[in-house]
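LOG
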Amino acid sequence: MKVVNVHAAKTNLSKLIEEACKGEEVVIARGSEPVVKLVPVHRPQAKRQFGSLKGRLVVPDDLMEPLTSDEIEAWHH
């Protein structure tokens, strides 16, 4: 987390905005007391990483088998 005072924030606002948009936490302080946090309006979405769940999910052998009447009934309630 980056903490800057108000004067430094005024001087480097464009740079601080860019850092916040890239995901870095930027806190602006008055003296030594933190008062606000600079955050992007829309957080950047994490990029998908194919294969990240490999070995963590199990597909049951009966996945493609027809549902039982009890399972069909459960969907209707």
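LOG (cont.) second protein
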Amino acid sequence: MGKTGLNFFNPLTYLTYMKPITELLKQNVVLGDGGYLIELERRGYVDSGSGREKVGTGRGSGQFTPEVAIEQPDALRELHREFLNAGSQVLQALTFFGTREKLNRAGYGAQTENINAAAVKLAKEVAGGKALVAGSVSRTQLTEREGMESLGKSRDHIAEQIRLLKDAGVDFLIIETFFHLAEMKVALECAAAAGLPAVATMSFRPLITKCTDGHTPAECAKVMADLGAIAVGANCEQDPKRMLPLLREMRAATIVPLAAQPAAFHTTDACHSFTRLPAFPDDLETIQVSRTEFVDFGKVAKTEGIGFLGGCCGCNAAYIRSLARGISEAS
């Protein structure tokens, strides 16, 4: 582009010297990265799991599982670079759905150690001291399939993954996309036992009024903070405008920083969850949110008490650049 007299925003100027996450949260809004698995699916490297009678019935039958870390490392490395160039101060290792339980059902259980270690190594390589590296820890799906009596098994799987992430050298954890507060409590207890700081974000569906085991956003926030989370909030399922009311409920219940990683997909008044809409997973382009909404969300981050701000499903580097622009314009 030629010069037009406009003041172009350079997201790289937003990057700061990398202090521990607990220190960064005290100074400004910390900018995370975006969604990996759906973006990699769009690029042809991850399976959406659609079109099958039953997901998770053998090798290669997982839905959005992270074996790309060992099978297509260059694709993952490039996406990390894009987020870093967009201004991300934190890169998440692609370890979402990286417990042995989930990987077993996708046919990769024996490579659980390799997948987690490779994902952290790639993120650290790209970060190169310019960004922190977080280990992503997600729900096991055992609670959804087997009920609350499975929490003991969930604890074993989550504790194992956190140990692998700690051994690989992550700076902290992002515990995300938990639908049951009971399982989130287990994950936070495992993080505390491992001595790793944790940002904790619940996901709410089909409505933002309560999580799957019946707790309000305010109740979730208080419990997560009481269990030592350094920031609490929500991720996935809702776009920024839809997520904001539940974040405000959380803000009223705790004094720790808020964390928000909204999705880039519109929902409806009847269903606040994009993964419960007919467009998921193969027609998501029909409900894509504009980047302008993420600029606006970045602007309100500081006034709404959001200390950690990133994106989830549907958010590529352009959306993170938009969040960075919003934060910059509000500062």
